[in-house]
Design a protein that fits this description.
Blueprint lengths: L1 H10 L14 E3 L12 H18 L14 E5 L2 E5 L22 E5 L2 E4 L5 H11 L21 H15 L5 H7 L3 E3 L3 H9 L47 E7 L20 E4 L15 E4 L8 E2 L3 E3 L2
Parallel strand pairs: 1-2, 7-10
Antiparallel strand pairs: 2-5, 3-4, 5-11, 6-11, 7-8, 8-9
């Protein structure tokens, strides 16, 4: 409960961090630096690099491919610009960290074509990764229903899953495998990629429109639901659960806007917080808007944090 409260407070800027890091398919085509926590960024980055290396080393054994039903359903997101961010001066629901700059409420970002999974990674899909690689796993991670989004996964866990899935797709038939063999990568979406898919081209506050609808997403509830439980015919690209269910890790280190794609990289030597998007099942409507930005230390492992995967050009 305390960690959940901290995530919400961080959105408003009243505190600077959540939990201190402890070292330790198919394709669908559609038509249509500044932040530092209280510790040392360099030390935190060093610990994260060691943690990622340990997780990846534990999954370096030969991958065993799951059934085709276990692959993500990737949806093509066309290239083009979109409006990113929100201005608290004109939208009272927006948080301060959504404002583009002191002089500008929103900004325009160009995003190259990529693919994003229609659903969050499920318990069953993550179990295939664990079974194939013998990766260490928290007791809570695989305790949920097979069709629920996987939770209790850290940022390094999500990165390890992406690298394993890429190795599996590299030898799999089908369009996703063809893209990987052509040099595309499986990774977490960036902050901008995620918001473009959720928001579309018309600056909507929620994936389905400008007002909250509890028949379109799992929020203000008591627990996770199976992925894809809510139909969203109004959503820009037909993806499910972009609002609510679980927060989703991204590949972007948290930095204040304006968004700079040249500095949006996986840098293990700096930036100790990582952007999360979408809100979760217990959040109020304000927290599950398309422009809401959360962040957590990479070692955070909670019942309301999961992820979805992207296919991006190298």
């Amino acid at each position: 409960m305390q960690a959940r409260l901290e995530l919400r407070l961080w959105l408003t800027g009243r505190i600077a961090m959540t939990e201190r890091f402890k070292p330790g398919g198919s394709l669908t085509r559609v038509r249509t630096r500044g932040f530092k926590h209280g510790g040392s960024p360099r030390a935190a980055g060093f610990c994260l690099a060691a943690m990622v290396s340990a997780v990846i080393a534990s999954t370096a054994t030969a991958a065993q491919a799951p059934s085709m039903a276990g692959f993500p359903d990737f949806v093509e997101i066309p290239a083009g610009p979109f409006t990113m961010g929100a201005d608290p001066a004109t939208d009272p629901r927006a948080f301060d960290n959504e404002r583009w700059s002191p002089s500008q409420g929103e900004g325009t970002v160009e995003v190259a074509a990529f693919y994003l999974a229609r659903h969050e990674v499920t318990v069953a899909q993550y179990a295939a990764f664990v079974n194939a690689t013998k990766a260490p796993v928290d007791a809570n991670t695989l305790a949920g229903q097979p069709t629920h989004p996987v939770t209790f996964v850290t940022w390094p866990n999500a990165i390890a899953y992406c690298r394993w899935l890429e190795s599996v797709l590299a030898t799999a038939p089908g369009p996703a495998g063809d893209l990987v063999r052509a040099g595309w990568r499986v990774r977490l979406p960036t902050d901008a990629q995620w918001e473009k898919v959720a928001r579309g081209g018309d600056r909507r506050a929620y994936p389905w429109g400008d007002q909250p609808r509890k028949d379109r997403g799992n929020f203000e509830s008591t627990g996770v639901m199976p992925v894809g439980q809510f139909a969203c015919p109004e959503c820009p690209y037909g993806l499910a659960d972009m609002s609510g269910n679980v927060w989703e890790w991204t590949s972007s280190p948290y930095q204040p806007y304006p968004y700079d794609p040249s500095d949006d990289r996986v840098n293990l030597d700096a930036d100790a917080l990582w952007v999360m998007r979408g809100g979760h099942y217990g959040d109020a409507a304000r927290q599950v808007r398309t422009t809401t930005r959360g962040a957590a230390d990479p070692g955070a492992r909670r019942a309301f944090i999961g992820f979805r995967v992207a296919l991006v050009p190298r």
